[in-house]
């Protein structure tokens, strides 16, 4: 199935035409696969295919940092569309190239997340739980070998930085907050009021006090702006996503019953 997708151009290209080399049904992962709607290229035919929650949350964080494109399960092929380059890198490193399970056929390697940033930089992200990178275990050694192949592949491409992300790189509360905020972007029933995000941020900051809960602030804004609680909640979450309201998402859950901590 994956081989057929690659022949059709999956795992390569960009923009609305990009299709990941694998989807969540293809590869068993530690944890569970996640399919999420595409934010930056909403016309893309296929949702994002993340093999773990760690991949999904990492992609969401990069989106909030201003990414212009997120491509997941990006195939590591040479210009001719073959796996010769990663094969050669494996030989140089003295490690075995990944194979299709149960066969001796070389597998196509993929990068978990390929991120384009506004400044033109590109970030290739390898996501793996820290326990699976333990050099004292067989599985950890093997994952580190595959990580090394990937790192060399991207080192040959100017303008691209290779990064390893584990669950320890970002606090859980931060990841949960970013995922919640991103989800609000797809509440299209409130699209008619989205032009008021800037106004909402200004009014919010004018009445904010550290001892006030989020729902208390939302209720006051609803009265002042003649909007429903749901509409104001939506606008506040959008403003926080856009950093117009500089909430400290690493300090506590951004939740109506909690106090809002600003950076």
Give the helix level as a range of percent.
Answer: 25-40%
CATH class group of the largest domain: Alpha Beta
Structurally, the number of domains stands at 2
Elements, N to C (H/E): HEEHEHEEHEHHHH
Coarse morphology = elongated
Q: Please give the count of helices.
A: 8
Structural class: alpha+beta
Total beta strand runs: 6
Radius of gyration: 21 Å
The fold-level CATH name of the largest domain is Trna Endonuclease, Chain: A, domain 1
Q: Which strand order does the major sheet show?
A: 3-4-5-6
Q: What does this protein structure show overall?
A:
The protein is α+β, with helices and mostly antiparallel strands. It has two domains: 2-165, Trna Endonuclease, Chain: A, domain 1 (3-Layer(aba) Sandwich), CATH 3.40.1350.10; 172-241, no CATH class. The protein is built from eight helices and six strands; from the N terminus they run αββαβαββαβαααα. The chain has helices spanning 2-7, 53-64, 84-93, 138-155, 172-184, 197-207, 214-225, 229-241, and strands at residues 34-36, 48-50, 69-75, 110-116, 122-127, 160-165. It has a four-stranded mixed beta sheet, sandwiched between helices. Strand 5, helix 4 (138-155) and strand 6 (160-165) form a beta-alpha-beta unit. The model has no long low-confidence stretch (mean pLDDT 93).
What keywords describe this structure?
four-stranded mixed sheet, Trna Endonuclease, Chain: A, domain 1, alpha+beta, 12% strand, 6 strands, 263 residues, two-stranded antiparallel sheet, elongated, single chain
């Amino acid at each position: 199935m994956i081989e057929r997708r690659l022949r059709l151009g999956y795992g390569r290209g960009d923009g609305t035409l990009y299709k990941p080399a694998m989807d969540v049904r293809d590869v068993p992962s530690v944890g569970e696969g996640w399919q999420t709607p595409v934010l930056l290229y909403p016309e893309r035919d296929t949702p994002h295919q993340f093999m773990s929650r760690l991949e999904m949350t990492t992609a969401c964080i990069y989106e909030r940092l201003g990414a212009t494109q997120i491509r997941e399960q990006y195939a590591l092929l040479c210009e001719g569309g073959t796996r010769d380059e990663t094969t050669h890198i494996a030989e140089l490193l003295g490690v075995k190239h990944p194979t299709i399970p149960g066969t001796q056929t070389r597998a196509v390697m993929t990068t978990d997340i390929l991120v384009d940033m506004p400044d033109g930089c590109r970030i290739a992200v390898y996501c793996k739980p820290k326990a699976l990178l333990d050099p004292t275990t067989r599985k950890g050694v093997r994952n580190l070998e595959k990580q090394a192949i990937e790192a060399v592949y991207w080192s040959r491409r100017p303008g691209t930085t290779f990064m390893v992300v584990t669950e320890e790189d970002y606090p859980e509360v931060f990841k949960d907050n970013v995922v919640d905020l991103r989800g609000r972007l797809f509440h299209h029933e409130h699209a008619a009021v989205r032009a008021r995000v800037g106004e909402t941020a200004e009014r919010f900051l004018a009445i904010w006090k550290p001892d006030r809960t989020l729902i208390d602030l939302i209720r006051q804004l609803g009265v002042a702006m003649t909007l429903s609680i749901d509409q104001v909640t939506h606008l506040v979450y959008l403003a926080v996503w856009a950093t117009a309201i500089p909430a400290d998402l690493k300090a506590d859950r951004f939740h109506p019953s909690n106090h809002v901590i600003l950076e």
